[in-house]
Amino acid sequence: MSSTGAATTPSPTPSATSGPLPTTLLVIGMAGSGKTTFMHRLAAHAAEKQKESRQYVVNLDPAVKTIPYGAHIDIRDTVDYKQVMSEYGLGPNGAIMTSLNLFATRFDQVVELIQKRAATLDHVIVDTPGQIEAFTWSASGAIITESLATTFPTVVVYVVDTPRTVNPNTFMSNMLYACSILYKVKLPFIVVFNKTDVVTHDFAVEWMTDFEAFQAALDASQEDSYMNTLSRSLSLVLEEFYNNLRHVGVSAATGAGIDEFYKVVEA
């Protein structure tokens, strides 16, 4: 599987299950990006293609009340988020991180369960907490990511709220965050522009491939000149990132673009 820039997938360990291995899709995204709805759409797509049995779903969000998809492994079955808050006197974010820490100590068992099913699976889909920093910048998040990546081919799927990125400065903030995650995890990386049923992602593709178009959008925004200058400079810095970035537009609500998403995954 190809990677972005210098990012490479660690080779599966020799002890891993022999034969073809399922691809792990590590789904991350800002709160409100439609990440969980995207997860539901992936599950529904597998059912439509009669491949539901070849998809393994893991939920790592301890604070979510309900999930609109069936999870084979759910962190909530192991860790009680509210009890963690009460027992350790923590706030919501602290409890999420502590719950992940507790679960990470047992994550080798999760990997073993997936390995037992590996021969019958195409994909392992992992949903992460909506508080993105609690996973991407925590020790437990790193442990979980490395455990998966050293055992299975792993792709990071970064879900973007397309309607919220029509502002060029917001777009730049999102891309900068995506870039920072890419170079932290050093894994194949796909940006999924979600909610294309509301706003098409054509503008985002244009901004990534045409510096002058992005500059014109900044000028038209009439925002603080310092922010515009910073975004303009960052756009040039991220040129290599853009050139190698795999991306796709989808609508988790309607299912549009999901077939294209899987083509990008397998590319």
Automatic annotation (TrEMBL):
Family: Belongs to the GPN-loop GTPase family.
InterPro entries in alphabetical order: AAA+_ATPase (IPR003593), Gpn (IPR004130), Gpn1/Npa3/XAB1 (IPR030230), P-loop_NTPase (IPR027417)
E.C. no: 3.6.5.-
Domain of life: Eukaryota
Keywords per UniProt: Coiled coil, Cytoplasm, GTP-binding, Hydrolase, Nucleotide-binding, Nucleus
Pfam families cross-referenced by the UniProt entry: ATP_bind_1 (PF03029)
Gene3D superfamilies recorded: P-loop containing nucleotide triphosphate hydrolases
Spans annotated as Disordered: 1-22
SUPFAM superfamilies named among the record's database cross-references: P-loop containing nucleoside triphosphate hydrolases (SSF52540)
A single Gene Ontology CC term: cytoplasm
SMART domains: AAA
CDD domains to which the protein is assigned, alphabetical: GPN1 (cd17870)
Compartment(s) where it occurs, according to its Swiss-Prot or TrEMBL record: Cytoplasm; Nucleus
Protein name: GPN-loop GTPase
Subunit relationships: Binds to RNA polymerase II.
Main localization of the protein described in the UniProt heading: cytoplasm
AAA+ ATPase domain boundaries: 21-162
Gene Ontology terms for molecular function: GTP binding; GTPase activity
Native organism: Aphanomyces astaci
UniProt function note: Small GTPase required for proper nuclear import of RNA polymerase II (RNAPII). May act at an RNAP assembly step prior to nuclear import.
